[in-house]
Structure formats: C-alpha cells, structure tokens
Amino acid sequence: MTISHDEIREKVIATVAEALDHRPEEVGLHSSLIDDLGAESIDFLDIAFRLESAFGIEIPDDEIWVGAVGKKNPGPEEIDAAVAALRERMPDYRWDRLPPKPGRTDLPRLITVQTVVDYLERRLA
Amino acid sequence: MAVVAPGAADLPSLWRNLVEGRSAVGPITRFDAAAYPTRIAAEVEERVEDGGVRLDRISRFALSAANGAVLDSGLLRGPLDPRRVGVLAATGLGCYDHEEVFASCAAARPAGSETFDREAFARTFRAVVKERAPERRTPGSVPALLARHFRFSGPAMAVMTACAAGTQAIGDATRWIRMGRADAVLVGGADSEIYPMGLASFCLLGALSRRNGAPGEASRPFDAGRDGFVLGEGAGFLVLEERERALERGARVWAEVAGFGSADDAYRVTDPHPEGRGAIAAMRRAAVDAGIAPEEVAYVNAHGTSTVANDRIETTALRAFLGAAAPAVPISSTKSMIGHLTVAAGAVEAIVTAMTVHEGLIHPTANLEHPDPECDLDYVPGCARRRAVPVALSSSFAFGGQCASLVLRAHGG
Amino acid sequence: MAVTGLGLVSPLGIGVEATWRTLSEGGGPAPSAGPYGGSRAEVREVAGFDPRAHFAIPKALKLTDRRTRFAVAAAREALADAGLAGPLAEPARVGVVIGSSGSDLMAEEIAGVLRGEGSPGSVQEIPWFASRMLAGLNPLWLLINLPNMVSAHVAIQVGAQGPNTTVMTDWVAGLQAVGEGCAWIESGEADLVVTGGAETASLPFVFGAYEAAGLFEAFPEREGPFVFGEGAGMLLLEEAGRAERRGARVHALIDGYGAAGSVSDDGGRDAVEVAVLEALEAAGTGPGEVDAVGLASVLSRRPYGAERDGLARALAGREREIPLHAYSPRTGFALGASGAIDLVLLVKSLAAQAGAGRALCTSIGYSGQAASVAVRRQGETP
After folding, report:
1. Which class is C2-105+142-245 in CATH?
2. Which of B9-13, B132-136, C350-354 has the highest mean pLDDT?
C-alpha cells in the first residue's frame, strides 16, 4: 500500500484539527502545535493515538516529537545544535516568538504540523 | 496516626525507612507485569484480615490504617458521643473488580460483533459479580464503612481531588472541627492503582518511570535524570480532635493542624500553570489561615513526584511562596522512597510531616544525585537532618489543577 | 447563605425553566430499557443536549465524560442566572464543590478494545489484557474517568481559582457538596461557590451493581420499575449580605445543614432523623415551621422507607400535613446528583408557590449516610 505526500498531509491536518478542535483550514504546515493551535502535553498523546488509527501503524511513545530535536533529554549544547538545524529546516517558523537562546522547555513549541508529516513520510516510505 | 505503607509494617518502621533513605520500590509482584513498559512499583505486603467480609484492597487498607489511628489516639478509651465523631476519607479510584468489569466488557463484543451486546454483558456480569458490588462502584463508600466499623455516627464524607485528596481531606476535617460539626474526625486516605488497569492507564499517559532495571533509583524527585513517577499504594489515617478536648483527656498530640489552603489552577487538565498559580495560592492560603509568615516555615514536605513538569513548577511555586527565605528551607519528597500513593499520598505525607515536626528530624529526598538546575532549592539530598521544626508545610497537587496545602505546627511550639 | 443562581440539566429539560415547565405541565421522555440486558430497572436520559453550546473551551470536551458535561452546563447556567456570566471579577475567591458517586469507566470503549476474544476468561491473562489495553485504549481514558475531573473541568471552564473539591459519598454526595460549599463561605475561604451534583446513571456497571444488591425489587407502596435518571443540579451560593450589596436576586436562603450516618441496620433512618433535626436547629426553627419537604426518594423500598420513617420521626407527627415533593419519580433517580437536583427544584418551587416560606431537602445514601438542607424564602422569618 502506498500513500501519496498529499494524502499524508491532508490526513495529518485533519487529525490534528480534530484533536485540537480547529477547522482544517486553520491548520497550516508551519503551525506550531503549542503556540498556534493551543496544544497541551496530553494533546501530543492524543494526536499520536489518533494517527495510529488513521494510518494503521503503531507509533512508539514520543517518537514523532523526539524527531523534531533528535533526542529525548538533550543537554544544553545538543539543544543549541538542534535549534540551529531547525532554523535551517523551518525558515517559515516565527522564530521571533522564542527567546534568543531557547531552553529545554521551549523545544516542544518547535513541533509543527510539518514535524508530524515528516515523521509519517519516513515511517511510510 | 497510622499507615499502611510500602515496605513497612507500621508507622515507626516507615519512619525509620524514610530517615535512613531506604526505597520501597521493587518489581511488581501482584500480577504479571511483563507486558508493561513500567514493571516496578512500591507495593504493600498485605496480610489480609477482613473479618470475613470480602473487602476490596483499598477498603482493607483504609480499615487497617483507620484501626491503627483510632487505637493510637486513645479516643475510644474515654467518654465519647459517637454522634460528634465524623469520618472523612480521600478515596475515589480503582476499587472495581477486574473480573467483574473486564470479563463483562469482553463478553459484550464477541468475535464478529460490531456493537455492544447489552445482553451478553449482563449475562457475564451476573455470573461473576461478587458481594458488595455497589460499594466497589462507588469508592465513596469507604468512609461509611469506617463509620460503621467504629460506630461513629457523625457525618461521613468522601472527598476526591485525585493526587491532592489526602491533603484536602485533612483540611476539610479541620474545618469541620473549627465549625463545630464534629469534636473529632477520623480522617485520611486510601488508594491502590497497582492493578492491571490502573497500571495500564498511567502507562498510557506516559507518566511513569521506566527505570525497570534499577527500581530503587526510579523515583528521583528534583534530580536531572528523573523520568516519571513510581506508583505506590497504601493508606494513612489520623484522628483530628478539637485542641482543648484532646488536652483535657490527656491525649498524646503528634502535631497541630494550624492552617489549610485549597485552590485550583483553572488552567489545564494535566499541565500545571507555568508559574504554579494554584500551588502558590494554596500555600499562601494555608499560611494566612495558620497566621504565619512564609519565612516561618522550617520544613516543606513537597509533592515532589519525580515528573519533569511537577518538580520544576513546584520549585517555581516554592520560590514564589517562600520568598527570600527559599534557599534556606529544607524540602524533601517522601515519594522518592515510597512512590506516589495517588489519592492517599497527601494523607501519608501529612503523617510523615507530623512525625518530622514531632521528632525534629527531616528525612532526605532519595536518589537526588544530580539536581536539575531548574530545581535549585535545598531538597535534602543524602542524609536525614536533625533540626527543630516548629512549623512545616505539606502540599499536594492533582491532575485537574487542584492544589492543597497544610501547615502543621509542633505541639506547644 | 443566599442562593443567587440555579442551573439544571435533567431528563425533563436542559435548563431550570425547561425542566420546571415539563414538571408543571406533565410529560417528559418515557423511560427506556437502559444499557443492561434483562434488567427490571429503566432509565430516563437527557435528550437533545449539545455540550459544545456550554463549553467556553471546546477542546476540553474530548477529556470529559457525560456527567462532567452536564456539570459544566448547569454551573454556567447558575452563574449566568446570578448575573455572573463572563469572566469572574475575583477568580481566586470562587470555589467549586460538586457531588458525584463515581465515573463512567467507558464500558463500550473497553469492550471495543477487548473485542473478538470470545472467552471472558482471557481478561485474566494479564499480559494479554495489558497488551490489548496499551495498544488500543484511548490514552486519555484515565483523565476522562478520574472522578474529580467533574469539579476540575467546571473550574477550568468558568475560570474559578478558589477551593475545589469533588465529593463522592454515593447518593448523598450532592447535598453534602452543598453543605461543604456553605462551610467554605462561612469560613471565609470563598465569596462565591458553585455547588451541586452531577451524574450519569445509564451505565451498565451501575445497573449491574445495584441489581446484584437487590435495589430494583418491587415494593407494595409503588407501582412500576425502578427508574434511574441523570443530569446535574447546580447552585451559586454567596453570603446574603454580599448578595444584597451587589443587588443580586436571591432565590432563597440556605440557613441550615445537617449530616449524620447510621451505624445500625436501619438503612439510614436514624441518620435522616439526626440530619433533619440538625438542619432545623441550625436554622433556628422547628418542625412546626416547615411548609414543604423535598426528598430524594429513590423508588426502592429500603432507602425510601428509611428516609420516610426518619423524616416522620424528625417532624414529630407533622409529616402528614406537609406536602412532600418527590421529584425523582419524574426525573429519574440520579444517584449522587439527586439531592442537588431536588434542592434546585425545591428552591424553584418555593419561589413559585405563594404561602410556602420554609422547606427542607433531604437525601440518603446507599451506605446509610444522610444530609439535610433547610431553605427559606428571603424575607421569611427563621
């Protein structure tokens, strides 16, 4: 079974929209789940659970989100490196909302709809 | 006061374990936990004595701790109007029977069925149902069970604010006595979430430590390496009594409940408010109620769960509450050794705080090896400390944003 | 203590007025068979309830069970009724205390996760059970089912940062919550308290457990089956002087509360008697002044008999002259919410009936706990 990029994107947007109580048109690829869509920590569990049913796969724990920063409990240097890489990958993200030197608690704010789409494309490739 | 606690036969042995920094966490033995990502907990080794009544585990814990507390108080040795004695218990989670609930549910969806079959559900439920089914449906039946057992005919009530409930119940009991609703209240909490569905539901939330290889090191509040909490189980009960009445009958007084505060974040269901506004409000209200200034607090028994979010925000809240005095106040987490007793946690921790005040001895926070830089208060790593504690604070915070704090004072202090 | 706001969700209507209209005009939904096959009990369910219309933050809906949704709707109605819709002026001074006997456990969802295994015995194989649950159950299950979420969600939806508690003493929880709410205001812990009860009884475990205990057995005084109900009844309480200063309309004053437990096998009779006498004493009045009694009569011989006999003793012979308002035959018996739903209706009836100045609401729990609340119309002398 193959699934196209467009289908993955649409399904992810629909799933995120439903979990966070938004209309799909309010959800963009660069929307930060926390800053733009109002997600709290349990919403990440909920979204992963919904994606499992939507795509018929199992998603081990926080694999999707860890993907954004590379590691579950990064140290200060690893955070700096991850943020630098994300700046490169996500030029459209509104970086002005983050403090100049983001800390560990800021990392989840960098999870966007694109983070989820990227993860699923890797998984389903 | 009395407890049913992991790794301890009674309150003196619990206190000894805590002071010596001994962890009660180990592999789960009550059922086969092989399929769970978390396979450790702080279990109670229980000798079942339920007088021929088939009580659920939580009710047995409650009855056993309540028995101990009533004996310890000497309440029944003198004249007593049973109508003036109330019962307050923090209960409200898993009393339900695994077979009753899940065998019936499984039967309701046999292979090939697309809908919930009410007939099949009922048939199985009727076949497996045990005695006292309504009491298990309603964990709030525990205080009534205790009231009947001791023949206390004052008000009996169950309060449920999840992980804050034990603390809440003691606050409510204090108010009952102050307002004259009762002369004495048997108050406490009982819980066990160490059963197949309880463990599954906490695993699903990603809330539990997975340090299965080193159970004794799994609960590490305020440590940089913490990865979630460890489930404990048990019960703690106290007899609270109007001060003059207790003194008149010559009762031994462990400590005095000086103040109580309750508040709600009114923010989110699981995320605490980033500045800890509910926690700060509860602590401030407790201090105001006790008529003390925050800098008078000589010891804090923290909620300290060992989750990333709680310990950090609790630090922020303690810093805001204690003000300039914050770095000098010893703060420890009982959960570092006996895990999280969920609904009963606040009751057992209030008892531990009363012991601290009474003995002038502060138990350490176990496993605090590399303090999280964001948890930079004096969390008493290493060894117990001997120090007079005239005034202490004990706090509990719950899913749902419910926060409760107690101020205890040394008797005569 | 002034009652300045009322809120209600019941099978007879969504809102106090809608319920009151159905109650006065007759009608309402017919009871249905309920979720438990072959049971003699029936249930009246709330129909046409759209929870989205009541949630300020609708994302929270996925974390709520049915009773919590009822609670939020009734709480917001009570606040609006008290002229306090919108953001609260002093959120830290607003408390929430709600009674509820238990949560839902979501039998249908669990059954969906365990489906297809045929043999119920397999749930005793814990590794199998665990792997099914861990892979298939909604990870939010615990948060939806935590019983205290009922008062937590009300706080989140209305922004109440004051004291917050859920009372769980089976059927007496709703009236006990009202008693605690009064105490919070008297002790100065809150200025405003949203209090009452919320419950769903249309649950297979509720039917199963109470059937096993023989609650549905018929008795001669009544015809027809035991009928469960569901819903929420909420009151907004504030100190009477405060209500007057802000010019709030006062539905009634609560001036007495009593609670007691039975320790003998009288089913709670003595507890009812003591609770009623305590409530009357606190109100500075006696049985001679009572114009109406609301009783959360539960349509079943044991608790109903105990409640009636306890009342008769407390009212010392006047019980035959005083009109009894037993709403549960119409609304269905809503377990822990029943006392609060009855109290809301009793307060409403006090306002509607000329001549009735003083009423008493009682509730009795499965385990023999009783509570009683004394209410009077404002302007009536105690």
Report:
1. alpha beta
2. B9-13
Phi, psi dihedral angles at C106 (to 5 degrees):
55, 60
How far is Cα C336 from Cα C363, in angstroms, rounded to an integer?
9
Active site residue B273: no
Residue B202, domain CATH: 3.40.47.10
Residue A110, pLDDT > 80, answer yes
**Helical axes B57-73 vs B142-150, angle rounded to 10°:** 40
Residues B127-176: pLDDT tens digits?
999 989 999 888 788 999 999 999 999 999 999 999 999 999 999 999 99
Same domain, B114 and B199: no
β pairing state of C192-200 and C94-99? parallel
Same domain for B340 and B191?
Answer: yes
The answer to whether domain C2-105+142-245 and domain C254-376 are alike in fold is yes
Name all chains with 3 or more CB-CB pairs below 8 Å to chain A: B, C
Q: Do C62 and A19 touch (CB under 8 A)?
A: yes
| Cβ-defined contact of C139 to A46 (cutoff 8 Å) | yes
ipTM: 0.96
Residues B112, B18 share a domain: no
Domain-wise residue ranges, chain C? 2-105+142-245, 111-141, 254-376
**B309 contact A CB<8A:** yes
DSSP per-residue codes, C15-60? SHHHHHHHHHH---PPPB--SSTT-S-EE----S--GGGG-SSGGG
Does A107 score more than 90 pLDDT? no
In this prediction, residue B258 has a pLDDT band, given cuts at 50, 70 and 90, of very high
Q: Which helix (H) or strand (E) holds C94?
A: strand C94-99
> For residue B52, is pLDDT > 60?
no
Q: What's phi and psi for B129, nearest 5 deg?
A: -60, 140
Best residue in C59, C131, C134 for a mutation probing chain A (most A CBs within 10 Å): C59
Residue range(s) defining the domain that contains residue B196:
2-93+135-409
Q: Which of the residues B163, B203, B375, B403 is marked catalytic?
A: B163
Residues B102 and B83 in one domain: no
In chain B, the number of structural domains is 2
Work out the pLDDT band at B50, boundaries 50, 70, 90: low
* Contact across the interface for A45 and B206, Cβ inside 8 Å: yes
Q: What is the pLDDT of residues C35-52, one digit of tens each?
A: 999 999 999 999 999 999
CA distance B222 to B331: 11
Q: Domain C254-376 classified CATH 3.40.47.10?
A: yes
Is C367–B108 a contact, with Cβ atoms under 8 angstroms apart? no
Report the top-level CATH class of A5-124: mainly alpha
Q: Which residues 28-87 of A have a C-beta within 8 angstroms of B?
A: 40-42, 45, 61-62
Domain boundaries, chain A: 5-124
Last residue of a domain, one of B128, B149, B175: B128
Please, what is the end-to-end C-alpha distance for chain A in angstroms? 10
Q: Are strands C42-43 and C13-14 parallel, antiparallel or unpaired?
A: unpaired
B 345-384: CB under 8 A from C: none
pLDDT tens, residue by residue, B371-393: 999 999 999 999 999 999 999 99
